[in-house]
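Final paragraph of the annual report: two paired records, presented back to back.
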Amino acid sequence: MKPRYILILIFILIFTSCLIAFFIVGFPGQTDSVHDGDIVYNMIKVRNSIQDFYNKEKKLPQDIWEINRYTNNNRNYMIDYEIVNNFNYKLCAKFKTNDAYQAELKNFSHEKGYQCFSFSINTSSLPDKNNKI
């Protein structure tokens, strides 16, 4: 084989390898969006876990690690948790993209950068003390 054909073959192999790698790992912009989607998904899980915790303990957890112990979920490291008062709290995270999620996730529309979302405990889901089951 001539050296020219060998170089063309090497170039084609390298180019094909790069394309395959991008499809397996994802393109750079895609991975940022996936990262943000994971954060939103974890925020929803944390929000639900906080509500469950409150329903059982009648108080907000002191920190997010209390939720991790409660849910056995260690992926909440990307989320900051702040108590506002006895019934309200914030979940915050750093997002890599500007993104608006589907209609059912409209509460999680965010800009690129650090952003907080405010939540309240749903006290209507608590059992009535006067109503014995």
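The closing record of the year follows.
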Amino acid sequence: MGKINYFDIIFPEECSVYHPGNIVNGHVRLELLEEIRVKGVWIQFWGRAYFKETDSSSSDTGSNFGAEDATETYYYFNMKLYETGSTIPDGLTQTDEEWQLDAGTHTFPFEFLLPNVPSSFRGNRGYVSHSAKAIIKRPGKSDFRLEKDFNVIKPLDLNTLPKANESVKNQIIKQPNIFCCRSGPVTAFLGVDKLGYSPGELIGLNVEISNHSEKEVLGSNVKLYMHVLYHGKLTQGTEVQTLSCVNHPSIPPGETDVWSGDTMLVPPLSPSNLEVVVLLRMILNEVSSSVTSQSALIHLCEQY
């Protein structure tokens, strides 16, 4: 873009994140080294979701035969910031067929109402994105285009979740076999104080593992997972991300490990009704066989 020194979509610095119902405003800024002729300046806004239905792990078997990548458009706006016949902004002069933008700096303000849409999200197999695209249309020449994403967060009020403040607990019992003989059990208790958390909060871990067997428990850990479920036209896809992990050392026979003061930080995630799972894993023998216990489906929300 030899005649253009600078071309950008500018959002207010204080508006790094938008919520549904907010006014998205800003301006398109254009700095020209020379004059150019234009048909007009437009800005487009859209929100869309994408899911890659064809997965390399299953494509070899042909299980996704006929599958296509799934897309959904939540909204689309095409706003004319300037076009032939409209009021002439400062710095523009009119000819019979197009406008002339003189050398220098030009700004084109915009604003639109953001509808009720989902939060921005990006995973390994799909995303929800919100974008703006500025277009400078020129007569007889290719257009100048610039695309820029902006972040949207749809708040989730924990008060709308009846069980958000309820505690939850689970217990598992494992009966190891030692040289084909029955041994005493290994029992584990896992609990959390509540089901609703905000990013940045600490999850208090209530864990007690009693080793009544004759074999050493090689270790234990608690992991925080996020499970993402994608819905396509023909298939569904899942994605599991490990968000956090807390490890504890081995437990000799006849000993008990009581976790005291252990916490797990909820990382920054897009607030939504995401189901995040807390799992306890015990390593029971040298080949690292394990047993897991799901304690809770934890809902994440924006902190008010």
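The domain at 158-300 is CATH 2.60.40.640 (Immunoglobulin-like). This concludes the annual technical report; the extension proposal builds directly on these records.
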